[in-house]
Automatic annotation (TrEMBL), chain A:
Gene3D superfamilies associated with the record: MetI-like (1.10.3720.10)
InterPro entries in the record: MetI-like, MetI-like_sf
Annotated keywords: Cell membrane, Membrane, Transmembrane, Transmembrane helix, Transport
SUPFAM superfamilies: MetI-like
Transmembrane segments: 61-83, 95-117, 123-142, 176-199, 219-240
Protein name in the entry: ABC transporter permease
Domain ABC transmembrane type-1: 57-238
PROSITE patterns: ABC_TM1
First-listed, main subcellular location of the protein, grouped into a coarse class: membrane
Family: Belongs to the binding-protein-dependent transport system permease family.
Cellular compartments annotated: Cell membrane
Membrane topology of the entry: Multi-pass membrane protein
Species per Swiss-Prot/TrEMBL record: Ureibacillus aquaedulcis
UniProtKB/TrEMBL annotation, chain B:
Span of domain ABC transporter: 3-227
Gene Ontology terms for molecular function: ATP binding
PROSITE patterns, A to Z: ABC_TRANSPORTER_1, ABC_TRANSPORTER_2
Gene3D superfamilies per the UniProt record, alphabetical: P-loop containing nucleotide triphosphate hydrolases (3.40.50.300)
Protein name: ABC transporter ATP-binding protein
Keywords tagged on the record: ATP-binding, Nucleotide-binding, Transport
Lineage: Bacteria, Bacillati, Bacillota, Bacilli, Bacillales
CDD domains xref list: ABC_NrtD_SsuB_transporters (cd03293)
Length: 253, 248
């Protein structure tokens, strides 16, 4: 635990070092702001423009969280169904993997044609990027249930239902959480992509506007907040993992 | 509760594992099964537990056939098989929980007797090997079925811990009598614990010898040094010798 935060501290220092380097290089080479702004310019813009940005930020946050929750729930449900019904799994799992080869960028305009510019197509896009890592991770978790524990449960006469709820599901919890963590980082990206393609508000919209008016500093503000948001969601899921996953650290020395 | 096994056969494909197996565990009796590795001892337990159905023969509990019926016995496996995400207390009630309502008071009482009171809320990864086996045994005791099947429960422990665990097992059993079927490949363990011993042949397994252990109870480790113990050991060893001799 302490080790973790120390590593975190180190990478923070390194990041700070990179920013300083960036700042210095920009100043020394006198690069114009419209080509590549210095970190100080980006910070300044973030502070001045926050009033305008705030609304976009809130919209993206709520969209990401809603999409993440829907995507993860659907993913978990699908993985449970596929796990409990091996026959269905055989048919659907390859298709599921295939579906991941459809680029979101191509799919998004189609969804907008079919469902309009409302909330629905956006939630579908985010859910689509989020559910896959959850399905794969959960199914791996269910499948990797320790065979001696499975044998024990059968010997004491556990039903299939008990086998799942008392053994397979809790056993898979760490895997499920790694899926959720990946999904959390994807969800913000999914939200921004969906906003790009048509929305009134959101970081995606803000970014498109900034780009078309050559406000590179604003693009960087948006990038910065996207990263912060991803890290924040990741952190929330890690916290939930800490609380829910018990007794899994390696044997005591 | 009594267990009667008559003329039991089972094969895995072309491989016959049990052949005409006959044995009996009487009410509140401690019976040990002694057999070479790979002879089919665990397979026998899986048959009794209903995970496998025999090709021929009958398994009866109190005179009623239980071929292929699950959930009628208590079971303790070779590896403790505790659930890492459950505390010790939650682990010991698991088998009872599968069958209905767990009794936490009884669980706490037994944990205290086993010297594990202060570990009630610990997770298994904080326990030593011997402690884990005690937890696994209490879990089996709490599941209430009056036939307890143990599959080499102490074979993974060191000699010191094993003798301590055997003593502890006997003391608990004297107070909570149940019929026990105890599988082992240690002659001394079988003699020290059991009322009766069945010696199995190598695969395909059948009962080669049935030995009544004459030592009175309660027993303690001093028994291990007596001449009677040594003589009986020699006698049992005679039965096992042939199987050792022509083993590859
Ligand atoms: N499900 C199975 N399918 C095929 N063969 C099996 C199966 N289970 C066990 N066997 C075989 O049956 C034989 C007996 O196995 P079993 O596990 O009952 O032996 P054991 O007496 O418990 O051995 P050990 O002392 O090593 O635990 C072994 O040769 C094993 O390979
Ligand atoms: Mg075995």
């Amino acid at each position: 635990m302490r080790k973790m935060s120390m590593h975190g501290g180190r990478s923070l220092f390194f990041l700070l070092f990179l920013f300083i380097l960036w700042e210095l290089l920009i100043r020394l080479t006198e690069t114009p702001k419209w080509l590549l702004p210095a970190p100080s310019d980006v910070l300044k813009e973030a502070a001045i423009g926050f009033g305008d940005f705030y609304g976009h930020l809130l919209s993206t946050i709520s969209l990401s969280i809603l999409g993440l929750v829907i995507g993860c729930s659907v993913g978990l449900l699908i993985s449970i169904i596929l796990h409990r019904l091996p026959k269905v799994n055989e048919v659907l799992y390859p298709l599921l993997i295939l579906s991941q080869n459809i680029p979101t960028i191509v799919l998004a305009p189609l969804l907008i044609i079919w469902f309009g510019f409302g909330l629905l197509p956006k939630l579908i896009i985010i859910s689509l990027v989020c559910f896959f890592p959850v399905v794969v991770a959960s199914m791996d978790g269910f499948r990797q249930t320790a065979p001696e524990l499975r044998h024990y449960m059968k010997m004491i006469g556990a039903t299939n239902k008990q086998l799942f709820w008392k053994l397979e599901l809790p056993h898979a919890l760490p895997s499920i959480f790694s899926g959720l963590k990946i999904a959390a980082t994807y969800s913000v990206m999914g939200a921004v992509i969906s906003e790009w393609l048509g929305a009134k508000k959101g970081i995606g919209v803000y970014m498109t506007l900034a780009q078309s008016s050559f406000r590179i500093d604003r693009v960087f503000v948006a990038i910065g907040f996207i990263m912060l948001l991803s890290v924040g969601l990741f952190g929330v899921i890690r916290l939930a993992e800490k609380i829910m996953v018990k007794g899994r650290s390696e044997e005591k020395k | 509760m009594s267990l009667t096994i008559t003329e039991l056969d089972i094969a895995f494909g072309q491989l016959p594992v049990l052949e005409k197996m006959n044995l009996q565990v009487n009410n509140d009796e401690f019976v040990a099964i002694l057999g070479p590795s790979g002879s089919g001892k665990s397979t026998l337990l899986q048959l009794i537990g209903g995970l496998l159905t025999p090709d021929n023969g009958m398994i009866q509990l109190n005179g009623e056939s239980i071929n292929g019926k699950k959930g009628l016995i208590s079971y303790m496996p070779q590896h403790p098989s505790l659930f890492p995400w459950r505390t010790v207390l939650e682990n010991v009630v698991l088998a009872a929980e599968i069958k209905g309502k767990p009794e936490y008071e009884e669980a706490k009482r037994l944990l205290e007797k086993a010297g594990l009171a202060e570990f009630e809320n610990s997770y298994p990864n904080e326990l030593s090997g011997g402690m884990k086996q005690r937890v696994a045994f209490i879990r089996a005791l709490l599941s209430k079925q009056s036939l307890l099947c143990l599959d080499e429960p102490f074979s993974a422990l060191d000699e010191f811990t094993r003798i301590k665990m055997q003593n502890w097992l006997l003391s608990i059993w004297e107070e909570n009598r149940k019929s026990i079927l105890f599988i082992t490949h240690s002659i001394e363990e079988a003699m020290f614990l059991a009322d009766r011993i069945y010696v199995l042949s190598k695969r395909p397994a059948h009962v080669k010898a049935e030995i009544t252990v004459p030592f009175s109870r309660p027993r303690n480790e001093r028994l291990l040094e007596t001449n009677e113990f040594f003589h009986l050991k020699k006698q049992i060893f005679q039965h096992m010798k042939e199987d050792i001799a022509d083993d590859d």
